[in-house]
Amino acid sequence: MTNSQKKLSALLEIFLISLRLGCTSFGGPIAHLGYFQQTYVRNKKWLDEQAYANMVALSQFLPGPASSQVGIGIGILRGGILGGIISFIGFTLPSVLLLILFAQFLGQMNLADAGWIQGLKLVAVAVVAHAVLGMSQKLTANPITKGIALGALVLTLLWPHQLAQLLAILLAAGAGYFLLHPNQNDKESGHLTISIGKKSGAICLSLFFLLLAGLPMLRAITDTPLLAMADSFYRAGSLVFGGGHVVLPLLEREFVPTGLISQQDFLAGYGAAQAVPGPLFTFAAYLGTMLYGWQGGLLATAAIFLPAFLLIMGALPFWTSLQKNSSFRKAFAGINAAVVGILISAFFIPIWSSTIHSAIDIALAAVFYSLLAFWKVPAWIIVIIGAVSGLIL
């Protein structure tokens, strides 16, 4: 097999795996990280637990859709920039198509209350629990890292603000720097090797800020409706920490008070976005389609995800260089411990609190967890079982 055939085979594998995840990953960004960990770390072994935690920590630092940025980053690790693009397309395509179809043809169906959705939420509970336990064994192996994780958990539970995660990570970095010792094994196992140079990274970061500042000026000068929509979605994707649930009120303020989208249509799309797999940022596809047809849906999707691309591609080269520094590795060990606490917090609110309502829910979640953890049943099969269970019960 020639090098070009090997690259094509690798890219095809990236697309097919990310597409399967895009069809089966329900439950929001934290659940997506659980599905990614199960697929990319445990099953495919494309990267180890430490390297995956490093990628998750980087995505928590950056604004934008955390789970999508992790998926893009893993695609870049596996297949370069083209691999990142293909990974993004595979993971995002199913929900984009479903929401465009919903906006055009399906009307006001209340998908969010369907029984199968509850079954899928219970699967998400099991997947996230499995991922958090696996990561905690590696990343909180001593009393200090356990204490850092606990602090991040308490902070993010008691202060449910989008900046709480960022503050927890910054405090954990300081605690790790002063209290922990660098581990040579972490340097060897968790290092991320990427094909993007620092010059390319700097260009991506410069382009991110240029668009953030330039689009509003172009919008004011040209008064073009499509450009105005692209500016709104680009800013929403650029300035949000904490994932898709946080971007929804920002988009509502952009489009509902101005009369571009009615409150009823916005809420219908919100319900549909909760019901489909993949990233919640694809809600942009629904809004764009309601405004300007399917072409508007594709433009809105590109605009809201473009910041995530530019930021992850711009940050990765510098992030990987910093990992070679012993002082940074100490801080990074604290950051990784904080990520565990943040994931536990997100597991409780909103995943557990919005899903577990009865003894039947607990029983089903326990069954799904056992299938995943003990009998190694593939996650996509458990998703099907969960949907059927929700319909029956």
Structural write-up:
- It comes from Terribacillus saccharophilus.
- This is ChrA protein.
- The chain crosses the membrane at residues 81-103, 115-133, 140-157, 163-180, 201-221, 298-319, 331-352, 372-392.
- Its main location: membrane.
- The protein has one domain.
- 80% of the residues lie in helices and 0% in strands.
- It is built from 16 helices and no strands.
- The protein has helices spanning 3-24, 29-43, 49-61, 66-106, 115-139, 143-158, 164-179, 184-190, 198-222, 225-238, 244-255, 263-275, 283-322, 326-352, 359-373, 379-392.
Radius of gyration: 20 Å
Overall helicity: over 70%
Whole-number average pLDDT? 87
Poorly predicted regions are none
Number of H- or I-type helical stretches: 16
Q: Main beta sheet: strand number and arrangement?
A: none
Please tell me what the overall shape is.
globular
Oligomeric assembly? single chain
The ordered string of helix (H) and strand (E) elements is HHHHHHHHHHHHHHHH
Membrane topology: Multi-pass membrane protein
Family: Belongs to the chromate ion transporter (CHR) (TC 2.A.51) family.
Subcellular location: Cell membrane
Pfam families: Chromate_transp
